[in-house]
Amino acid sequence: MPDVLIRDVAKEALEELRAQAKRNGRSLQSELKTIIEAEAYAHRNRLEFARRAAAWRETNGPQKTDSTDLIREDRDTDYGREW
After folding, report:
1. What is the DSSP secondary-structure string of 8-48?
2. Residue scoring higher pLDDT (74 or 81)
3. 31 and 21 Cβ atoms separated by less than 8 Å
4. pTM for the complete prediction?
């Protein structure tokens, strides 16, 4: 697996990352690896979701329902009535 070197990380950020790693029971290296991988996959998942949502919108388009029709239908049936 390739290595990554990150230089000039702010001292405060590094301290927070060390504390976060300790809270999670991991080494700093393991915590950083987890953060980087999670962000990479999250970005990919967000792009895939956006692609699928756009495709759905193209095929289905916005659907509007007149609430008046729904209320009338509900009144004409036994839905919501207490017996």
Report:
1. ---HHHHHHHHHHHHHTT--HHHHHHHHHHHHHHHHHHHHH
2. 74
3. yes
4. 0.55
> Does 74 have pLDDT greater than 90?
no
Of the candidates 13, 35, 9, 36, the one whose C-alpha atom is nearest the C-alpha of residue 24 is 35
Question: Which residues, 6+ apart, have CB-to-CB distance to 26 below 8 Å?
Answer: 34
Please report, as a single letter, which amino acid is at residue 69. D
**pLDDT value for 82:** 55
Length of the chain: 83
Alpha-carbon Rg for the chain in angstroms: 26
DSSP label at residue 80: T
Output the CA–CA distances (angstroms, integers) from residue 67 to 39, 46, 74, in the order listed: 42, 33, 10
Helix (H) / strand (E) element for 74: namely: helix 67-76
